[in-house]
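The instructor's notes for this session suggest beginning with a concrete chain rather than abstract definitions. Hand out the sequence below and ask the class to guess, before any prediction is shown, which regions might be ordered.
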Amino acid sequence: MPDPTPRLPAQPGQGLSAEDARSLQRAVRLSEAQVEAGRLGAERAAGAEVKQLAASIAEEHARFRKALGDLAAEHQVALQGREAAGIADQSLSALRQASGEAFDRAFLARQLSLYRVMAQLYQTMASNSPEPALQRFGITALAALRGHFETARTLGARFGLSVDTVENPPQY
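After discussion, reveal the predicted structure:
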């Protein structure tokens, strides 16, 4: 659905809009959490495919985190990590406690549950931001996110995990 109140591009020296700055900060926190979850998965997962997915997620979100940091620096947006913002992630705490197949199940369930949240964030960046760099980042992130989601959905089916999704492609 198109945004009924489109935003105008920032004027020279103006910086990002408050909404874009919040999206950037939220994306950084999500990427940091995904890097941590991916690293845990690469170390603790029982299945080789889950380990491979986890390592891929950690690598991809580390790149996202760097790109987001560069965008934030370019637009003078202060970033706070999850800990500095006082955000606790219960699913990460559960992952730290799990091992073996229980870890695999918890990791895949986490990835499936986060998909819609992350897809909505990056879709909003791609579709609604007047800043071309944020639009490009949103599109790139959506493509990578979709690939990880499809792998997690396939692997999760083995554990009886599923998630409802809207199967329409993103609209930019």
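Then share the key points. The first helix runs from residue 18 to 44. The mean pLDDT is 85.
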